[in-house]
Amino acid sequence: MPIMNLLVAFNGTASAEAALRYAASIARDRQAHVTAMLAYSTHDTLDTSSRWIPREARALLSDAKNDLLREIEAQLDALRGDLQLGDGLSFRAAPGRVDTILAETGRTFDMIFAGRPLVDDDAHIRLHPDKLALMSGRPLVVVPEGYDADARHSHAALAWDGGRAAARALSDSLRLLEAQGRVSVLTVGSAPGLEDLLLHLDRHDVDAVHEAWPEGHPVAASILGYCRRNDPALLVMGAYEHSKFREDFVGGVTAAVLRETPIPVLLSH
Fold it and tell me: pLDDT tens across 64-76, in order?
């Protein structure tokens, strides 16, 4: 699949800026188009229509929200020169449920990029990458705050367990893996289809090596430790092979990796 049309969830946070810069670095190599989208909630923590809230207070709350949206758009305008995309960068804003708006919009894009959420993100613009991965049907790249897309990073990493979600992630990321030219396949315990996977990558001119941990090793800790030691440019993995409820309930691999990853993670479900 050519990567020509990229959507970035841009809400003005440090991690959203990192996601935009990462998407721009991919777009420049391919002459692709990047759409930065500000999705924002119309729901207020307080019921500002209540007659118990004075008119002046309602006006102040409305002005504060509008100021936040204007600041985010101004922040994007200030970044345009650094991103070097010219007419290949556009901006749009849309009100509604943040995750729903982004997921529905993202279905007509090749790939979605989002920053890793921070605890102090404003409630009106807060998004949840795990929900985007489940709802959009598109590959999602989650980028941590402070990540430097233009620094030298080593090859890509692919978490493989032989499951459906891992296979989907492999397919969704293949153009990026081809561009890297080298990938480490990470497995913990048994990994059905491993030999065929290595052959498949070889036929796409991707030099693959296998990094393995025995059964019983903590999966998330093994993957995260490898990424910290080797600094791959990208980690590719399937999201929520089990249900998201089960993952959240037992503290699953996807949630742990997203919470602690030092590098961008491509998720497919």
Answer: 456 778 898 899 9
For the chain, strand residue ranges (E) read: 5-9, 33-40, 89-95, 111-115, 140-143, 156-159, 182-188, 207-213, 235-238, 265-268
Strand 156-159 and strand 111-115: the pairing is: unpaired
Burial class (CB in 10 A: 0-12, 13-18, 19+), 114: buried
Could you give the 3-state DSSP secondary structure of residue 157?
Answer: strand
User: What counts of helices (H) and strands (E) characterise the chain?
Assistant: 9, 10
DSSP bridge partners of 33: 5
pLDDT tens digit sequence for 10-43: 999 999 999 999 999 999 989 999 999 999 887 5
Residue 51 has pLDDT above 90, yes or no: no
| SS3 label, residue 212 | strand
Residues 124-153: b if buried by 16+ CB within 10 A, e if exposed: bbbbebbbbbbbbebbbbbbbeebebeeeb
